[in-house]
Design a protein that fits this description.
There is one protein chain. This protein has 3 domains: 223 residues, RepB DNA-primase, N-terminal domain (Alpha-Beta Plaits), CATH 3.30.70; 113 residues, no CATH class; 48 residues. It is 40% helix and 16% strand. Strand 8 and strand 9 form a beta hairpin. It is built from 16 helices and 18 strands. It is globular and about 100 Å long. By secondary structure, it is an alpha+beta fold. Strands 1, 4, 8, 9, 10, 11, 15 and 16 form an 8-stranded mixed sheet that branches. The chain has a 4-stranded antiparallel sheet with strand order 6-5-7-12, with no helix packed on it. The termini are far apart. Helix 9 runs antiparallel to helix 10.
């Protein structure tokens, strides 16, 4: 189906289905008269092509059954067909095991931004271009707003921290257009194209923009910036000299706060699974629920967070009453709401995120150490295992890496053309040749011409040979 449009379309000069070139690839395309429109099934297929888990559809105004769970083996066309033209039908952006809870996340399928109260998508795209952000794959005009989607190759749940950072950045970029800061969680449902918005009886329309499907690294590089590449030092003398100087440069830390709390959340789930029969021991349930809720606050929006906490309490701490659950969750919900609104708290003279950010040692102490985290649990934990265990793992990992480094054959792997010994022998011969020609009275320019290199390269060979830098055998001076 085609719909008329007399707008300039913002797009990137890149092959269809391929990630666009890095920032600066935007251009204003020629005026076009039609845009590909997405019907109900097209919208679903764009998000959930080759599904890896369950998709949830919600009909808000239905009198009977409001929720439909579509598993990969279900007949999608037959299940979606009845929703065409109905009011207020929503679908999950991502896929889950059993139900739409963070701990059940199975596959991330898209990043999205929900813009409320604005339908001028051309200005929104211009704002993305000016911010050097990648253009969306498609959009949905929800009747009173816009939903932008950046389609992803199916991603596992462990990539949630990076996904969340991308979400935060995209929402922040489009905040001047009215982007909903509360709508950036992985459990979100958004309106389905081909249905009706009951608030103004407007049709929900989907439109293809670039159709691009992104892999995680490409989209993260575009939105968050290029990853820092670590250079390998071959000049061992210079490297050793630099090591004697104090390191005054700031070294970026790996991962993010989202990665940390995702690991903590996984550890807490492993502890809960260990105590499945009988639940978390008495005396630790309130603390355990508090920490689970705090972990969830880094990934769930305030509206969804309360539901997540209640379901977590029913599953892992069933002896707690709803009043107790609400009491323990109250400060978490307040701080999550403040964080979603962009507020900052002052702590030790600096502004920080309102959500609690505990250290690993604090978390272990609150959980009672080995009283709750027993030795049989240690192999399953990454953040909450005893400090000594984590240190021992790191030493074993570093030792294994060193052993692998010594035995690896990078020539066989196709990374290098020749082994290091061969490379050094060839380099030594070139240095000796440069010195021999120079000893015959040739200028450095003539040495370079004889060897097929520039005068500067010839000088470098001579200087290195004279200083003995990087040589594997004695050189005649």
């Amino acid at each position: 189906m085609k719909r008329s449009s007399r707008a300039f379309i913002l797009c990137r000069a890149s092959p269809k289905g391929q990630p666009p070139k890095p920032n600066g690839g935007w251009m204003i395309a020629q005026r076009i008269e039609t845009i590909d429109s997405l019907e109900l099934h097209n919208h679903y297929d764009r998000l959930h092509n080759s599904p890896h888990g369950a998709v949830v559809v919600w009909e808000r105004l239905a009198l009977g059954r409001r929720w439909t769970k579509i598993e990969p083996h279900h007949p999608v066309a037959a299940l979606l067909g009845p929703y065409a033209g109905k009011q207020d039908v929503f679908v999950t952006v991502n896929e889950f095991r059993h139900w739409r809870l963070i701990r059940n996340l199975n596959s991330l399928r898209a990043c999205y931004v929900d813009i409320d109260g604005c339908t001028d998508w051309e200005i929104a795209l211009e704002l993305l271009r000016e911010a050097k952000m990648p253009p969306p794959s498609f959009m949905v005009l929800s009747g009173r707003g816009i939903h932008f989607y950046w389609i992803l190759d199916p991603l596992p749940a462990k990539t949630l921290p990076t996904w969340q950072r991308i979400q935060d950045t995209l929402v922040h970029t489009l905040a001047p257009m009215g982007a909903d800061y509360r709508a950036k969680d992985c459990t979100r449902l958004l309106r389905l194209a081909g249905t009706i918005n009951s608030k103004n009886n407007a049709e929900v329309i989907g439109r293809t923009l670039t159709g691009t499907s992104w892999d995680l690294h490409s989209l993260a590089d575009e939105v968050l910036g290029q990853r820092i590449q670590t250079a390998t030092v071959f000049d061992l003398k210079a490297h050793a000299a630099r090591r004697r100087k104090p390191n005054t440069q700031h070294t970026p830390t790996k991962g993010s706060i989202y990665a940390w709390w995702h690991i903590v959340y996984k550890d807490l789930c492993a502890i809960a699974e260990h105590y499945w029969l009988g639940g978390i021991p008495e005396g630790r349930r309130d603390t355990f629920l508090f920490l689970m809720a705090n972990s969830l606050s880094w990934f769930a929006c305030p509206n969804a967070l309360q539901t997540e906490i209640v379901k977590t309490a029913k599953t892992f701490t069933p002896s707690l009453t709803m009043r107790e659950v609400e009491t323990y969750a109250k400060p978490i919900l307040k701080r999550a709401k403040d964080a979603a609104e962009g507020k900052k708290y002052t702590w030790q003279g600096r502004e920080v995120d309102p959500r609690y950010a505990f250290r690993a040692e604090t978390l272990r102490d609150w959980l009672g150490g080995q009283e709750l985290i027993t030795p049989e649990l240690w192999p399953e934990l990454r953040a909450l295992a005893p400090k000594e265990v984590i240190h021992e793992r790191r030493q074993e990992r570093d030792k294994a890496r060193e052993e692998t480094r010594k035995t690896r054959d990078r020539v066989a792997e196709g990374r290098y053309k020749r082994k290091r010994e061969e490379f050094l022998n060839v380099a030594d011969k070139r240095r000796n040749e440069a010195l021999r020609l120079r000893a015959e009275g040739l200028s450095w320019n003539e040495v370079g011409e004889r060897m097929g290199i520039s005068e500067g390269a010839a000088r470098k060979l001579g200087n290195r040979a004279t200083n003995g830098v990087g040589l594997s055998c004695p050189t005649t001076k």
